[in-house]
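Obj: model holo form, ligand = 6-O-phosphono-beta-D-tagatofuranose.
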Amino acid sequence: MIYTITLNPAIDRLLFLEKELTKRKTNRTSKVTYDIGGKGTHGSYAMTRLGVSNLALGFAGERNFAAFEEILMQKEISHRFIQIPKGLTRESIVVIEPDNQGSTMLTEPSFSVGEAEKQQLLLFLKKYLTEEDIVLIAGSLPENFQINDLAELIQAAKEKQAFVACDLSGEALLLAAQLGVDFIKPNEFELTELLSEKTGTVEEALEQLSREITCIAASKGEKGSICYYEGKQYQVLAPKVKEINDTGAGDCFVGAFLAEFSKCKDIKEALKTGSACAASKVQYEDSSYFDPKEADILKQQVKIIEL
Ligand code: TA6
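Output (holo structure tokens):
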């Protein structure tokens, strides 16, 4: 089983502009849609679309839980979110300009997580996780969920010998790397920051980091991504597609990568699947949708170069 944990989910409100976003002007929208928000929920959506059983966990606000759950049901995401009493799941406003000019995201503050709810999540992992499972902890931390709470969560998963994947940033990413998890997805800046904690040359630092982290999928922006796995480096060149909305593409990559990896344990296949599903995703308007059949075709265009 794959468990995804979204500590700070969102309801994504997507605003489609009639014209380019312009400051000090009334920017009129032609359409408004909603999607599930939060990196772990997007990972679960990708796993579900690929037919890999998974359960989406995390926290969600009590006050708009019905609206949040309605989108989860529409996306057919199996879930077991812990409700935050009197809490409101935040909205992420995604402004999408016409003619593929890109998207801009504005996200609201989160609810505040209480100690009782933290313990509920921890106890769930301690009760149900096994060494056969994968757990993905993804996205930002909500208010009052401290770094040491995250450490407890990661350590509980490690103690069960599950495969621990983290799509985190900032201090949370540094913690995950220090604790030695199985998968991280740093961007270029974050990778540099992680390596600066090590000694020696970049290569030597990478060597050290790769000994502590089973798989590092470092995104290199336009240059695709580089994966470090079992002492080897793979450059991943994604297919070229027409981008409508890149929101959630990285989340889709992670979910699809883990789904494939859970089945075949083949790093190249998993990288190809992740990259192809993310390429399919950016061609669609919302934050999560992609077409597995289209991704299957795009998979042939993914280039994996062993460095
Ligand atoms: O990556 C896309 C997304 O998950 C959106 O759904 C939006 O809700 C935002 O990112 C949330 O990001 P955060 O880093 O706060 O978890």
